[in-house]
Specification:
There is one protein chain. Strand 14, helix 10 and strand 15 form a beta-alpha-beta unit. Helices cover 38% and strands 21% of the residues. The protein is an alpha/beta fold and 350 residues long. Helix 8 runs parallel beside helix 9. The strands form three sheets. Strands 8-10-7-6-13-14-15 form a seven-stranded parallel beta sheet, with helices on both faces. Strands 2-1-3-4-5 form a five-stranded parallel beta sheet, with helices on both faces.
């Protein structure tokens, strides 16, 4: 079986050699190259032709976000961000790298004495193997590190829906910001969101999301009343559940290997809001969210899945379609306009 070729971009010689050791011992993988700068990675990219890139974020010269942006413009290749830092500046770079086309972010294994070393090493190699199969496409749209937040405007519009749930995974940050940006600051529903991301990056993800979309973002830590035009995320390693006009956390078992799980969120929305729930399932690997989306549709709510034509990974949406849980599949640019249309239609009927 042909091995998967990995290019490592890491400025620390010790960590670079450490990553080489981890990757070389995995029978699925082989080292295509190991460099300390993004500039060097770009110079050898065509020659070494990696199947996937392990990308550090803080690099001398060009950082990981800028490198990812250039790779996606010139020679699209799956990029996995591997970072140990949760400092605010580094997290901003990490999240923008995801928005520029990187597929996922993983914690960097820190040493053989770490109690979590083996689990992190296995997760790294498995994710590199999986992401190497993703078909990435050339991206020409410039991604700015930070977007000005649109001025909030109040809305008196009443909608027949009570909440919007959005679930995403691999490729999700970019898809999520496109949908949220398209809804605009006057959107009249609370937004309950699940994005699969390493728990150590949650705080940075929330801060970044608030900086690039027209909504405030809250990490839920206790039962909280829902407010229109606000995004709610679960605290790390908890499920997010809707209950009537509020959200709460739950420490139940992982579902579809995820906690928070999109299926748990959607099922709670179906129970709490019935036909007044709207669920959107975006790009992602696996099947999380599919069963839950079916429950929303069965309860009379409206469900949208991202179409295969735009999904970075058409796993979760495909499973929802297969189960019959999707009212309609739409390409990413059409999802926000359709959500706005549906809220207007319901308000007119009401």
């Amino acid at each position: 079986m042909k091995k998967i070729r990995v290019l490592i971009v890491e400025d620390s010689r010790v960590i670079r050699q450490f990553l080489e050791h981890i990757i070389a011992r995995d029978p699925r993988l082989e080292i295509a190259g190991a460099v300390e700068t993004a500039e060097e990675a770009l110079r050898i990219l065509d020659r070494v032709a990696p199947d996937v890139i392990s990308m550090d974020i803080r690099l001398p010269g060009m950082n990981g976000f800028e490198a990812t942006e250039q790779i996606m413009r010139e020679r699209p290749t799956p990029v996995v961000v591997v970072s140990a830092s949760v400092e605010r500046e580094d997290l901003q770079i990490t999240m923008n790298a995801l928005r520029a086309g990187a597929l996922t972010v993983l914690e960097k294994p820190t040493g053989v004495t770490s109690s979590e070393y083996e689990a992190l090493a296995e997760r790294l190699c498995t994710q590199l193997a999986i992401m190497s199969q993703v078909k990435v496409v050339r991206r020409r749209i410039e991604v700015r590190p930070e977007m000005p937040r649109p001025e909030r405007r109040s809305t008196a519009r009443v909608t027949g829906f009570r909440a919007l749930g959005i679930v995403s995974s691999t490729g999700g940050p970019n898809a999520l910001t496109q949908v949220l940006g398209g809804l605009g600051p006057g959107f009249p529903l609370p937004i309950l969101a699940v994005q699969h991301i390493a728990s150590s990056f949650l705080e940075g993800f929330a801060a970044w999301l608030a900086s690039v979309c027209p909504f405030s973002v809250q990490i839920v830590r206790e039962r909280t009343l829902l407010t229109p035009g606000k995004i709610y995320l679960a605290a790390q390693d908890y499920h997010l559940l809707a209950e009537n006009g509020s959200v709460r956390l739950d420490r139940g078992n992982p579902v579809c290997a995820q906690r928070p799980s999109g299926t748990v969120l959607f099922e709670s929305m179906a129970a709490a809001f019935g036909s007044q729930a709207m669920g959107v399932l975006l790009t992602g690997m696996g099947d999380d969210g599919a069963e839950g989306l079916l429950r929303v549709r069965q309860s009379g709510g409206y469900t949208i899945a991202e179409d295969e034509s735009t999904a970075i990974v058409y796993g979760m949406p495909a499973e929802a379609v297969r189960l019959g849980g999707v009212s309609e599949s739409l390409p990413l640019p059409a999802i926000a306009p359709r959500i706005l249309e549906l809220t207007m239609l319901r308000s007119e009927v009401a």
